Structure formats: C-alpha cells, structure tokens
Amino acid sequence: METADDNLEGVGRKRNPRKTLILAGVAVAVAVVLLAIYFYHPMKIAPGSTVVVGDFENTTNDPVFNGGLRELLAAELGQTPFLHAASDEKTGEALRELGQEPDAVLTPSLARQVCNKIGAADEVKSTIELTADGYAMLFEVVDCKTGATILAEGMTSPDKEHVIDAVARAAAELRKRLGEPRKSLEKHEASAEALMSKSLVALQDYAQGRRAEAFAGDETLAAQQYKKALALDANFALAREALERVQAKSAEAK
C-alpha cells in the first residue's frame, strides 16, 4: 500500500520543466558572454608582464621630444599593476652588461636586446613626426623573442602643446587593447600632469637626469637636471622625489 510519505518522495524527485529551462538559458547566456570576452577582448599580454619602453624615433628635428616622451610613456604604462614598465635602473644595468655607453639611445634594436636580457615580454617602440596637420605618433608593442608586432596604435596632436596629452591617450589605448580590465583602467588612470609635467622642456630635463642617475651613475649631473626641471615646473613631483633621492645618497656618501 502506498503511503503519504511515498507520495511526497515521488513529488520531490520530479523535475520542474520551467526551472530547468531557466537554468539552461542562464548557462547559455553566461557561455555567450564568456565567448564574447574571449574573442573580442582577448588579453594580448599576461597580467603583470614587464615591457621595455624604448626612446621615441624623433624625425621632427626638434630635440625637445628626445628623452622626455619616453619617460612620460613609461610612467603612463607603469601606473597599473596590469603591466610593469622596466625601470631605468634595470635598463641601465642591462645596457652596461651589453657593453653599451651609459647614455645610449634605446633604439628599437637595442631596446629589444635589453628586453631579452632582463627577460621582459615585450618592447614598446614609438615614433613622432611632423606633418602638415601637426604631429603624428605611432606606438607598437613588439614581442621581444619573435620580433612580431602584437598591436599598433596611432595618435595625432594638432600642435606641440598637446603632444603630452596625445602620448597619455595612446598609453591608455595600449593598456586597453592589451587586455587590461575596464575596472583596472578606471582605477589606475592618473592624468599626465599628475604623473609627470605638462612642460616638454621640464620632461626633457628630468629624462636627462634619470639617464645620468640610472644609466651613468652620475648623481651630481642628475641633481643638476632635476633642479632645472623643478625650476620650470615647481609641481613636478617625480623630479622633486628624484632630487631628494640623489641628495640623500650624496649626503650618505660623505
């Protein structure tokens, strides 16, 4: 004889067709989203990878773009934990091990050598040229081992005054296209002015100071260049930190 408990047990084992369809629909929706993320927003670099930022190939004949733009780009790319821009110290050490001069220009070829020397993933090479419409820039992320271009980003500026902003925008686009998540992009998005300086000349002085300090180990010359940068932009935080650093080292050495 069938009891009430038997009836309840049978009911408990029955499937709810409507609930099953809903769960199946949710599973399909999740799968579609994951596939979309994979195919349309793939990561082109492993999170936390190191990149070597080379010097800009400057065909404008204006020396104000030498050095400073590289430091700006490195700072913009390095503000996020998604990737790491190789430090000037590590780059300088690699250059010395490669038998290069301490003030060597990081051409694409030399940057790639440095990249492989320190075991970085990619190099970022950049160019800037003067056109009839202003300044045109090209940024390429290149696999250090194969030499293959992973991605390229173009950027323009109508005049010299907006080149810094253009470099900052290019860095943001590179991070996005490399696969950095949107939340990370929004969290680590300091302005170019907050990171460095809006003065091209101050940036150049700072870059020369960094080269003297990190590449050549000349802290006296580095301090002079940092002071010149601060004379042009008293709010240049990185230049002030660098000056305090080399002054502290000099004081310890006495």
Summarize the structure.
With 254 residues, the chain is α/β, with parallel strands linked by helices. It contains eleven helices and five strands.
Describe the structure.
With 254 residues, the chain is an alpha/beta fold. It has two domains: 49-196, Rossmann fold, CATH 3.40.50; 197-254, no CATH class. 54% of the residues lie in helices and 17% in strands. The chain is built from eleven helices and five strands. The chain has helices at 4-13, 17-40, 68-77, 88-97, 108-118, 163-177, 182-187, 192-195, 200-215, 219-232, 237-253, and strands at residues 49-58, 83-85, 122-131, 134-143, 149-157. A hairpin with a 2-residue loop joins strand 3 and strand 4 (134-143). The radius of gyration is 26 Å and the shape is globular.
Within CATH, the superfamily of the largest domain carries the name ABC-type transport auxiliary lipoprotein component
The helicity comes to 40-55%
Q: Provide the residue-averaged pLDDT.
A: 85
CATH architecture heading of the largest domain: 3-Layer(aba) Sandwich
Quaternary status of these chains?
Answer: single chain
- Whole-number total of structural domains: 2
Keywords:
2 domains, 17% strand, 11 helices, 254 residues, five-stranded mixed β-sheet, Rossmann fold, alpha/beta, single chain, globular
List the helices and strands and how they pair.
Blueprint: H1 4-13, H2 17-40, E1 49-58, H3 68-77, E2 83-85, H4 88-97, H5 108-118, E3 122-131, E4 134-143, E5 149-157, H6 163-177, H7 182-187, H8 192-195, H9 200-215, H10 219-232, H11 237-253
Parallel strand pairs: 1-2, 1-3
Antiparallel strand pairs: 3-4, 4-5
Helix pairs in contact: 3-6, 3-9, 4-5, 4-9, 9-10, 10-11
